[in-house]
Hints:
Blueprint: E1 3-7, E2 11-12, E3 18-25, E4 35-41, E5 48-54, E6 59-61, E7 69-74, E8 79-84, E9 93-101, E10 104-107, E11 111-115
Parallel strand pairs: 2-11
Antiparallel strand pairs: 1-3, 3-8, 4-5, 4-9, 5-6, 7-8, 9-10, 9-11
Amino acid sequence: QESLQESGPGLVTPSQTLSLTCTVSNVPITTKDYYWSWIRQPPGKGLEWMGAITYRGDSGYHPALKSRASISRDTTKNQFHLHVTSVTPEDTAVYYCASNLGWATAWGQGTQVTVSS
Length: 117
């Protein structure tokens, strides 16, 4: 069973870039048929899927974030990363990374990111 852990700054200044890392244990992120997602939950709102990267390195994004979000990976460290440019206070949320294999999924514990000056 894989485990995931998010890391990154808890506070980001408006207009800057938010960068988070998800470190995966027990399963290589290149394992066939896996894809690796980022999801967030703003305060008082529901979960929002942001995007994902596949075991082959292909990525896809929520249409509303496509122009600002990017997901990359470092297979040597078994990590994948989220970058969101030009952040505003509306990007304040708890950010989660997750694994997906068919119907199975595993989530990290989440990390709070606040966008504020």
